[in-house]
Amino acid sequence: MPSTKGLGALAGAAMLFLSACAGPGENGSDTVPRDDPPLPPPEVSGPLPAPLRADPLWTAPFSSEPKATESMFVGVVQEREGGAVEFLGVDHTGRTRWSTERDPECTGFVITRDPRDGSELVVLLDKEKDPDGGFLATRTTASAFRPDDGELVWGPVDVPGTLVGPGLVFAAVQGSVMSDHTGPKLALHPGTGAVVADEHEDEVILHEYHGVVLVHRDEALRAIDFTGADLWDHTDLEVPEELDASDVRVGYGPRPDDDSAAAVTFVWTAPSDEEPLLYTVHDLRTGDRLLTLAADREPRALDVGDGRTAVLGTPTETPDASSVQVVTDEGDAPLWRHEVGPDARMRGAAGATLYLDDADAHQALDVRTGSLDQEWEGSAEPPAAALESGPALVEVTTADESRVFAALPMG
User: Rounded CA gap, 403 and 405, in Å?
Assistant: First the structure.
């Protein structure tokens, strides 16, 4: 399976995870305990990309870009195109600790947390025969596992189709996985697999993060908890002072650039015009406004762990200077701000590092403090995933021109 790096982020509300499920498969709820030794480090062709220049430690067994939990890497291996697909849990030493087989086209997965105790879970899809639907009928299911040992926590639970996000939001995608046309969506509770919101119930599901769901219901934007109870709605939001409160409306803005985020972006417009007047960023759970951003640059948001969200945009108080700011679900003010140029973009976050491109320069920032850890020019391949204390997995080219994920030490 070729690497899918860079294909999982389509712009705006049309972004879908590349996780289609097609064709019958076996029930893959059970995981297999393993203790496979690490693969030898790869023979890399050419210099390693900055900022990670040390010799590789081992080769990760993944065929496409993995994700990192607190202590494990989780991802897919497929020995040949169209062949069997296995999800693997690999620890910081490169040892494979568990695996589970899935339908060859069910490669979508997401890392989430149980809102009741904060424990991490990895949610996988599968396709199974549906004996109640006829000879060729299938059903799509989701199941959650503990990333450290692959223990099943809940599932399989029927879902209408693939992961469309943000968060644990599922839908049947019409036409292809690159389409933004979906059937009715469903949002699940991360810790139990119970249905939290269902678009068959006259609501539109917009965003889920760790058990809180943003929906449009009864002509209002509402944040609901996993019991379905309202936490707040858009009438509780204070209209930005820059706008005319009597002639403005608010809607769900650009979605996060990754699986989901604790903060949501809203766009403010005039009733007679779709052009943005302002953007605001809010804590999903409380509705508290965290940032107010100018309309001349559509903001981008990226989850950077521990309830923190990195936001790239132009603050209204500094209209001539864009910046990256990190906001948190534990406070109403940004943790830090880092000014950037007009061409800056966020490349991704891995471990405790946020990677930026700014014109011809590349930067690595500490997501906890905003300090500039490194700045360089030239090659810039940010890690696919990293554990906070290392290692990081970086896609590299080997001497035989194949692409693999090398484990590199951090720091």
Answer: 7
pLDDT digits (tens, 9 = 90+) for 23-45: 333 444 589 999 999 999 999 88
- The 10 Å Cβ neighbour count of residue 127 is 23
Nearest to 374 by CA among 393, 334, 304, 383: 383
Helix H or strand E encompassing 86:
strand 85-91
48 exposure class (CB count in 10 Å sphere: 0-12, 13-18, 19+):
middle
The single-letter code of the amino acid at 72 is M
Residue 395 and residue 60: Cα distance in Å, rounded? 10
C-alpha 189/C-alpha 265 separation (Å) is 22
d(CA 66, CA 75): 4
Name 311's bridge partners: 301, 325
What pLDDT is stored for residue 134 in this prediction?
Answer: 61
- Written as six digits, the tokens of 333 are 């003010």
Give strand ranges (E) for 270-360: 276-283, 289-294, 300-303, 308-313, 322-328, 336-340, 345-350, 353-358
Give the sign of the dihedral formed by CA 176, CA 198, CA 170, CA 30. negative
**Across all residues in the chain, what is the average pLDDT?**
86
Give the position of tokens 């803005």: 253
What pLDDT is recorded for position 7? Answer: 29
Look at residue 374 and tell me whether its pLDDT is greater than 50: yes
Check if the beta carbon of residue 100 is closer than 8 Å to that of residue 145. yes
- Torsion over CA: 243, 245, 246, 250 (sign): positive
pLDDT tens-digit profile of 187-202?
A: 999 999 999 999 987 8
Mean pLDDT, residues 288-314 taken together = 95
